[in-house]
Specification:
Elements lengths: L6 E6 L5 E6 L4 E5 L4 E5 L2 H5 L12 E6 L5 E6 L4 E6 L4 E7 L7 E6 L8 E2 L21 E2 L1 E6 L4 E5 L5 E5 L21
Antiparallel strand pairs: 1-2, 2-3, 3-4, 5-6, 6-7, 7-8, 9-12, 10-11, 12-13, 13-14
Length: 191
């Protein structure tokens, strides 16, 4: 048994090889079906955020996603932070956290499938810059292109991941009060 408590969230790669699970006490365990191995993922930095304070209600994992290829995992917290990890063959590598000002409570996360089916793109490397993926010292050669997240206040953000994670607010097409946002994956008609 991997958890001391019940499983609260499950996310799976498209081929079913990578299974990410979160327990009721924020235990985060990754299962690799191909090698029959498990990894415990440390979420302390994501849950505590930059404040470094003690855990509270705002330090709860509220959303989870695995990209189609099973190479990236994201978790969202009640504080509005999104943690990202690259899943390698024998290790899990943390990447810079994502957060936007005045947003709390990540409700849902989804990686966007790429048009070419690969699910990733290779970012251009630059010599300088702050934050983001480009300045991360152990960045994998490829990063997922786009990720969407919804928040408690009804907002939805499109995160363009690459040399610098850039959020773009997704706005309704008509002027109306937004009560809740939901992400729906639409399959192309040719599948």
């Amino acid at each position: 048994r991997a958890f001391a408590t019940d499983v609260d969230r499950i996310a799976v790669s498209k081929d079913g090889n990578i299974i990410a699970t979160v327990g009721l006490q924020n235990e985060f365990i990754l299962w690799r079906r191909d090698t029959q191995t498990t990894f415990t993922v440390d979420t302390t930095d994501v849950l505590l955020g930059s404040s470094g304070s003690t855990p509270s209600v705002s330090s709860t994992i509220t959303a989870m996603a695995v990209n189609d290829r099973g190479t990236y995992i994201a978790v969202g917290t009640a504080a509005g932070t999104i943690g990202l990890w690259h899943v390698g063959q024998n290790r899990i590598q943390p990447l810079p956290h994502l957060s936007a000002e005045n947003l709390t409570g990540v409700n849902e996360i989804q990686f966007a499938p790429s048009l070419n089916g690969a699910g990733t793109f290779t970012p251009r490397r630059a010599s300088g810059g702050r934050g983001g993926f480009q300045s991360h010292p152990h960045l994998p050669a490829e990063v997922p292109g786009t990720m969407y997240a919804t928040y408690n206040n009804g907002l939805a953000l499109k995160w363009t991941l690459g040399s610098c994670a850039v959020p773009t607010y997704v706005r309704p097409s008509h002027s109306a009060s937004v009560v809740k946002t939901v992400l729906l994956r639409v399959q192309p008609e040719d599948r």
